[in-house]
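Figure 2 data, in text form.
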Amino acid sequence: AIPVDSIPMANMLQNPAVANRAMAVTFNAMPNPGRDAVRISLDESMRLSGYTLKISDLRGQVLLQHTERADGNRFFDWNANALAPGMYLITVTANDGQVATQKWMKQ
């Protein structure tokens, strides 16, 4: 198995301009690595402002997009059963424009 942190994040951002933006927003994807499902837990500021969540493969193909309004749910559970094993990107964009991206490994 490839360690999740062995691939440089700067090479995997969908939009290189995002690398220059401060990433004050945070979220966790658990378990990582995982098999059948992933739970994405967003920080309180994301929940309060609203957000859009995208899960994509390393080629940039968006596999899932979900938008949550302000004061919405802080957790998002995703059934990843149909995915092939490999690395995926989870990108969360707050309604104020802040972006955070994490790698997630499907075993």
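Caption note: Strands lie at 27-30, 37-42, 51-57, 62-68, 75-79, 86-94, 99-106.
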